[in-house]
Design goal:
six-stranded antiparallel β-barrel, 28 helices, binds guanosine-5'-triphosphate, cytoplasm, GTP-binding, translation initiation factor activity
Length: 958
Amino acid sequence: MAKVRVHELAKELGVESKVVLAKLGEMGEFVKSASSTVEPPVVKRFTDKFGAELKSAGDAAAKKAAPAKKAAPAKAEEAPAQAASPTSAPAESPAAEAPAAAVRPGPGPRPGPKPGPKKAPEPAPVAEEPAAPAAPAASAKAPSTAPRPSAPEKRGPAPSAPRPGGGARPGAPRPGNNPFSSTQGMGRRPSAPPRGDQGAGAGAGTGAGTGTGDNRPPRPPAGREGGGAPGRSGMPRPNPAMMPKSPAAFGGGPGGRPSGPGGRPGPGGRGPGGGAPGRGGAPARGGAGAGAPARPGGFGPSGGGRPGGGRPGQRGQTQGAFGRPGGPSRRGRKSKRARRQEYEQMQAPTIGGVRVRKGDGETVRLPRGASLTDFAERIGVDAAALVQMLFSLGEMVTATESVNDETFELLGEELNYNVQVVSPEDEDRELLESFDLEFGSDEGAEADLAARPPVVTVMGHVDHGKTKLLDALRSANVAGKEAGGITQHIGAYQVSTDVDGEDRRITFIDTPGHEAFTAMRARGAQATDIAVLVVAADDGVMPQTVEALNHAKAAGVPIVVAVNKIDKPDSDPTKVRGQLTEYGLVPEEYGGDTMFVDVSAKSELNLDKLLEAIVLTADASLDLRANPEQDAQGLVVEAHLDRGRGPVATILVQRGTLRVGESIVAGPAYGRVRAMLDEHGESVEAADPSRPVMVLGLTAVPGAGQNFIVVADDRMARQIAEKRESRERAAMQAKRRVRRTLEDFMASMEKGESQELNLILKGDVSGSVEALEDSLAKIDVGDEVTLRVIDRGVGAITETNVDLAAASDAIIIGFNVRPQGKATEMADKEGVEIRYYSVIYQAIEEIEAALKGMLKPEYEEVSLGHAEIREIFRSSKIGNIAGCMVTDGVIRRNAKARLLRDNNVVADNLDLSSLRREKDDVTEVREGFECGLTLRGYNDIKQGDVVECFEMREIPRA
Ligand SMILES: Nc1nc2c(ncn2[C@@H]2O[C@H](COP(=O)(O)OP(=O)(O)OP(=O)(O)O)[C@@H](O)[C@H]2O)c(=O)[nH]1
């Protein structure tokens, strides 16, 4: 299904584009204008939702217009019919025939000559004269001038001929019938009915039709022709704002270029008829055609032969004749718009010196990362006004920059809109919905659900043995099952265990630590069914034990406690039980409901008991079932870029079955599953619920915790992925933008600097990059220094990274990755620093130190001592020398000093420039000693004054 433009959709439903735009807006679709395209799924949703409603509204509107439409043709047809009736005067017959024929233009050409000769002889000689000229005319022109109501025969011949522009018959402008018009198109405007309408009205009176009226806005005076007005009266008046900007907007259709006949009509010159609401093009032509015989020397198709020159009525059609661009003059419209704006402005309140129209508290939904321009479009104001408004509110934001949620909230409050920034999850759900997809729930009924293995995450304090335990569980299992199998770390694995004679599988997420767990949860993804809390029996409950426990509890995940290292002599499993009881984890043996298993990862002790406890806990507190038959869905556990295999992602199937060859979209990555491997490196054809597999074939590296979903085809996958990517980018920009108020800006300008550390993070797996970024975000060094991660990614450090770093003064942090190609060389040349790490904490520590190094030093005053001035020696060379007694502390040369008189500071921040004991220059003099000193540039000292000596010392940053 091809994309559809808004106006096409509107036409289909018979409503105005703005109605469709408004409805789309209600649906949360962000469509700019009538010419914007709408994705097929959105169209479907739209028509499902509003189709019926709008269609009926559209029909109603059409019906309203219809009577007028129908009335005219009816009248017209009636008239000829009457005319043709035997009761009519014979003289009228020929003329009457012509219109009759014209009503059905198809046979048009025939009737002309036919009735002509046939009936002409019959009528009385009186009739012969006028009829004769009419007949040929009819035969030649009837088709084009088709609509000729009763007027002609009444008015008779030539003089009134042009008038009958009455041609204004809707059916008249039949394609290809006008021998004079080369431009006369085949139903170029399917909107013939309105034209007919107008024509019917306008033409009736003005004949002048001139077709020229086409693009004109309504001109009330046009109604002067009398006929025009009635014809139009039944119609909605075209809104100037809705008028196309150029004739081209009409598709150059008959309306756009009155063409042919219109060109020649002498009568056409009477333009006003054309004043009829523009589209009267067709009928006008009719009129013109009628006029043709009178003025055969037109310009032909170029139309507007003498379109009244600069008359407004003529615009839009002058091109051919005068070589002027045929576009409508904008003067009139502009002033109208300006007037409207002025009016609106008058009603608009002033905020910070800017007039912006306020809302009525209506809800405006914006995607995260939207810009002021997006917001301005939704509420129909000028983006520049919003920029200015924000500026006055202390925020400096450009119109196209992504704006953060708080700023939108602020704006919403000021302007009385309920701004809803759609959360990424909601946005994603809506995105999938637009493709008729839903993530997160099983399809089908209860009966379709089948039991699935529990998914387990191992958490606990540092060094309590998480990794060791995961390794032990895996190798013990592998050893038992497939001796010799080479296990690979793919981020998750499955083991099986025998519980009550039943073979039960358990899936372990192989990235220990609650960082991975929380990172997933932060994305709204919950992969974990059960948490194994590892506590070393020799160490007991530690801070991270509690943290992990809280995370699991917050996620509502049942906990199994693995009391580890029981092989150690100083282990005390009982103590661990006691400690955890305080945190609400009461062992079963104490009457609680938490299973505690004493294990030793090192000696592989009680591992089977731990597995059993997991299965039993799952059975007792969880209903782990999923539909294995549907299209697969799940989560990305880990992903990285493999040199040989390209992007590789370990995914966990949560429901459905994933098969090789299926199209999937995982976060912003998509592709077709080329191959699937399990933790033993064996290829897998199908992965059922709770099964972790490594998937090859994606186009990019998705992030840990992002969801994946099987879709119908690659195209859909790509569309979803692209949308996600652009949204992610926008959201990232919004997040990255440091919220900087005007005050901040001023302050940093005053300081003459602003300190910012830009980083580019590269890591081997997405999990580590995310963990690093999250941890960096938590470094708090106050407001003076900001840390910005300007780019992050998985894979080697490339020249592009160096390029970006050079351009933005950034440092590149490589975590378990090396540079690629000439990246190092380039970095040296560009002066870009690349730092390599393999331990996260080290990276964080160093960056924190760097940030602190960027802080301006802070000083504190440290009092050194006091000296009382006992005597003053005056020297012409060096000024007044104070003879002092150090009363406490020390007096140090080059230190700072202040002068106190009766305990009041009389001079501050003086420099103690020289210090002597006896005749020797000294650096310091201690309490109880006499000394002579001078204060640089200060001579106003008196006996009894006290010199306080102090130093400014840098305060070490915490
Ligand atoms: N004696 C004994 N030592 C163990 C046992 N389990 C783990 N260890 C040791 O404890 C240390 C830490 O084990 P890891 O598995 O690395 O601990 P971890 O919790 O994964 O540590 P982080 O990854 O730093 O959070 C290692 O030296 C292990 O050999 C055990 O059951 N008994």
